Amino acid sequence: MRTSSGRSAGLGIALGSAFAFGGSGVAAKPLIEAGLDPLHVVWLRVAGSALVMLPLAWRHRALVLRRPALLAGFGLLAVAGVQACYFAAISRIPVGVALLIEYLAPALVLGWVRFVQRRPVTRAAVVGVVLAAAGLACVVEVWAGLSFDALGLLLALGAACCQVGYFVLSDQGGDSDDAPDPLGVIAYGLLIGAAVLTLVTRPWGMDWSLLAGSAGMNGTQVPAALLLGWIVLIATVLAYVTGVVSVRMLSPQVAGVVACLEAVIATVLAWVLLGEHLSAPQIAGGAVVLIGAFIAQSQAPKAPSGPVAEGGRDAVRGGGHVEELSAGHPAP
Q1: Which is higher by pLDDT, 309 or 185?
Q2: H or E segment at 221?
Q3: Least confident of 161-165, 242-246, 298-302, 308-312
Q4: Are residues 163 and 120 in contact, defined by beta-carbon separation less than 8 angstroms?
Q5: How many other C-beta atoms can be found within 10 angstroms of the C-beta atom of residue 37?
Q6: Which residue in 246, 232, 259 sits closest to 105, CA to CA?
Q7: DSSP state at residue 176
Q8: How far apart are the C-alpha atoms of 105 and 110, rounded to whole Å?
Q9: What is the distance between the alpha carbons of residues 188 and 181, in angstroms, rounded to a whole number?
Q10: Are 28 and 95 in contact (CB under 8 A)?
């Protein structure tokens, strides 16, 4: 049974994880605007984090033979796919908008469960999805004829789809007694993601001199190396680890709800540090998206024979079955 002090500490750690994840786009966008290709920024993030997590990968090396499909799914979708789509998206649309679109992932998972797996879903999940979709319509201002870059919106939606794909993959067999350690899966996911991204991005052609210079952040010059250090150490390694710790101190559902604040944090940071101002309808729409995500994620998963909740951000971003591997997003 979790004590009151333990839950308070867990809530603090969960908030810290949301803050760390929420700051990734704010730190990455200046590097992209300084001339780095979005995929190169992704590679730097994933490869740097993989090096930091290498000792954990060695410690959990048995996972390579025990759960190869799970590790491949995490590396290809939850790491490489989500990060590549998200960073490419923020190069074209505001950080807050891209992250809010990622919160369509629970709705997409719900559609998979209902129409592909043909399993019933809870009424609360449906209400949450409808609210999230309506809020998203306000965020992208559909009445203005999609004033945002269409490709940027599709890339953000691609990030959400990658989260869904990994959730569906890793949900298979999640109730087994030999559930893998989330930290080991994170470590190997980063290694696999780094290997795949190396082949795709060919970083040897990157302009490495840009990392020795500075990048503009709403008129202020910030050392590029400092921004990269934040992305690797804070927005990736620390964010994932604290996400795991918070889930274990709280519960997947509570930690997932707290993680909804990531979109708020990212939007506020982008407003303050990047000058990306959102209109009143967009702010209201973002609030509706978060309310919908909160409602959809707040119910505990049911047994397969009953209604199925669609899971939460921890299920789709950080790992497979919500009780097996709640590791906190890819996000971005």
Answers
A1: 185
A2: strand 220-223
A3: 308-312
A4: no
A5: 18
A6: 259
A7: -
A8: 8
A9: 11
A10: no
220: enclosing H helix or E strand:
strand 220-223
> What's the one-letter identity of residue 130?
V
* pLDDT value at 28 more than 80: yes
Residue type, 94: P
H or E segment to which residue 214 belongs: strand 214-217
Contact present, 137 and 285 (Cβ < 8 Å): yes
Structure token pair of residue 248:
């274990």
- 174 contacts 321 by C-beta, under 8 angstroms: yes
The Cα–Cα gap between 236 and 202 comes to 21
Angle at 181 between CA 178 and CA 186, to 5 degrees: 135
Say which residue the tokens 């101190």 belong to. 249
Considering only CA atoms, which of 171, 128, 131, 117 is closest in space to residue 298?
128
User: CA-to-CA distance for 125 and 318, rounded, in angstroms?
Assistant: 20
d(CA 27, CA 217): 9
Query: Averaged over 45-64, what is the pLDDT?
Result: 93
